[in-house]
Write a structure and sequence with these properties.
The protein contains two helices and no strands. It is an all-alpha fold. It has a single domain, classed as Orthogonal Bundle (Helix Hairpins). The chain starts with 10 loop residues before the first helix and ends in an 8-residue tail after the last helix.
Length: about 90
Amino acid sequence: MFGLGRAKPTSAEKIAAIENELKVVAEMHSRMIKVCTSKCIDKAYREGELNKGEGVCLDRCSAKFFEAHQTISEQLQKEGAARGFGGPSM
């Protein structure tokens, strides 16, 4: 986040960057829960526990969601670094 040649970030800037990162992760988690739940779990609950198919579906859906998020994050960091916005924050 803070590239070479820039002033060292202040504590307030570090806190703001961490808060922003936590907000992004929380939003991603909420989207993942909504998407994967609607895809994998039937609206008519028949059992108190997840069945094997639902569990496998949720595992695969969440893994794909995280993989896509990671790929997009890496690409955005590369583009940001190419434009001079610095690298990863930590």
